[in-house]
Amino acid sequence: MKRQHAPPLAIGIGAVAGLRPMMALAVIACALRRGWIRPGRSPFARIVSAGASKRLAELTISELIADKLPFTQSRLTAGPLASRVVSGAICGVAIHGTLKQPVVQGAVLGGLGALAGAIAGYHVRQKLNREMPEVEVALLEDALAAGGGAVTIALTAAAE
After folding, report:
1. What is the DSSP string of the chain?
2. Using one digit for the tens of pLDDT, what is the confidence trace for 12-70?
3. Residue 111 above 50 pLDDT?
4. Is 13:112 a contact under the CB 8 Å cutoff?
5. How far apart (Å, rounded) are the C-alpha atoms in residues 49 and 18?
6. Pair 130, 30: CB distance under 8 Å
7. Long-range contacts at 32-39 (CB < 8 A, ≥ 24 apart)
8. Does residue 105 register a pLDDT over 60?
């Protein structure tokens, strides 16, 4: 795989952030800790560093639990949407830094991927909630975010 695959990978990890913002960060940190990818020249390497992976994993678990609570805000309200876009941008920078590509481009693509992932995830979840229990739909979304993150990391590692 060549480095020209960096843009779709940044969009992909951004889409994961659109579904679960902490999951995307935790996946990158885990991959760095295990040596599957290298941080490259990412200015945000410390945020998603191997040393931060334990704390990010804890925050991800909290996020997965909080998502199932009845008082959790919609992902499309300003605060949650902004956190998803920022997480996507940070992860996009990390992917582009790993593949020695322009990090500004990674930030933009990761943020746009997060925006698209949040909007698509919201609408799919609303539709599925009419046919399935909410908890089951949320668990499917968790699995999609984890799987999407794993695939993005595997493809990034192959492109290095």
Report:
1. --GGGHHHHHHHHHHHHHH-HHHHHHHHHHHHHTTSS--TT-TTTTTT-GGGHHHHHHHHHHHHHHTTSTTPPPTTSHHHHHHHHHHHHHHHHHHHHHTT--HHHHHHHHHHHHHHHHHHHHHHHHHHHTTS-HHHHHHHHHHHHHHHHHHHHHHHHHH-
2. 999 999 999 999 999 988 888 888 888 776 666 666 666 677 888 899 999 999 999 88
3. yes
4. no
5. 21
6. no
7. 36/153, 36/154, 36/157, 37/98, 37/153, 37/156, 37/157, 37/160, 38/98, 38/160, 39/94, 39/97, 39/98
8. yes
The first and second tokens of residue 127, run together, are 């539709």
Residue appearing with tokens 């996020």: 63
